[in-house]
Amino acid sequence: xxxxxxxxxxxxxxxxxxxxxxxxxxxxxxxxxxxxxxxxxxxxxxxxxxxxxxxxxxxxxxxxxxxxxxxxxxxxxxxxxxxxxxxxxxxxxxxxxxxxxxxxxxxxxxxxxxxxxxxxxxxxxxxxxxxxxxxxxxxxxxxxxxxxxxxxxxx
Length: 155
What we know:
Structural class: mainly alpha
């Protein structure tokens, strides 16, 4: 006397197959981070924010130049985001914290540049904030990704 409808049993079996596929994909060894990627990520991040922040630093520049800086900076940040998704995405999981470090350590690594950026915001305005966030955040990205890459290398 099985009163379970056939469609719910089939959907449960399909859900189980999907879960097993996701578990197997998550258990696979992740793709190694390419050697060029930490530097590219950090430099794209830094260059994007610096170009956007230049509009407040170079006040005598014509609007065409500042618009070009903004467009180029936004384009570099978009490329950095797309590249990060393409390289860092792991099958079956969304990785928010690199495996080489803890969440607290990562937060502390980004907290110091943010404090410095806010101090420079009061000294130099939005340009100081954006340029400091770009340079220091790009450096932290570079170092964290370099550490993750070096720890992921097979012995």
